[in-house]
Amino acid sequence: MGVQDLQDHVLVQCDFEIFGQVQGCGFTKCCRDNCLALSIKGWVKNSKQGTIMGKMQGAKGDVGKMVDWLSKTGSPGCKIDKAEFTNWGTCSRLAFTDFAIRF
């Protein structure tokens, strides 16, 4: 294992908000499914402002894959205008036991 491999396994967390045409296209479900596949913990929900908001925690490399998906890909039929990632930090343990859709 090299230094990069070790860095990819550091536990990180961040909040996210996705702007654009992202509601009504299965975005929260696709986000949850992708996070579960990557063993990322946290939550996602539709906001009253028409955005998608959430929090994710997991291995740095896996969270990086989700950052890319949330920024560029999203669910089929969505149109992502902007993605914001805030409150970055490392964590010694995960505060969530799964990845859930909140209402």
Strand and helix map with partners:
Elements (H helix, E strand, L loop, with lengths): L2 H6 L2 E11 L5 H11 L3 E6 L5 E8 H14 L5 E12 L8 E3 L2
Parallel strand pairs: 2-5
Antiparallel strand pairs: 1-3, 1-4, 2-3
Please write the string of helix (H) and strand (E) elements. Answer: HEHEEHEE
The number of helices is: 3
CATH topology (level 3) name:
Alpha-Beta Plaits
How many domains, as an integer?
Answer: 1
**Rg from Cα:** 13 Å
Strand share of the residues? 35-45%
Helix content: 25-40%
CATH architecture: 2-Layer Sandwich
Strand order of the largest sheet: 4-1-3-2-5
Question: Strand count, sense and closure of the main sheet?
Answer: 5 strands, mixed
Give a nutshell description of this structure.
This protein is of the alpha+beta class and 103 residues long. The chain has helices at 3-8, 27-37, 60-73; strands at 11-21, 41-46, 52-59, 79-90, 99-101. It starts with a helix and ends with a strand.
Describe the protein:
It holds the Pfam family Acylphosphatase. Residues 13-103 form the Acylphosphatase-like domain. InterPro entries: Acylphosphatase, Acylphosphatase-like_dom, Acylphosphatase-like_dom_sf. The protein is α+β, with helices and mostly antiparallel strands and 103 residues long. The chain is 30% helix and 39% strand. It has three helices and five strands, in the order H-E-H-E-E-H-E-E. It has helices at 3-8, 27-37, 60-73; strands spanning 11-21, 41-46, 52-59, 79-90, 99-101. A five-stranded mixed β-sheet has the order 4-1-3-2-5, with helices on one face. The longest helix is centred in the middle third of the chain and has 14 residues, at 60-73. The protein starts with a helix and ends with a strand. The mean pLDDT is 94.
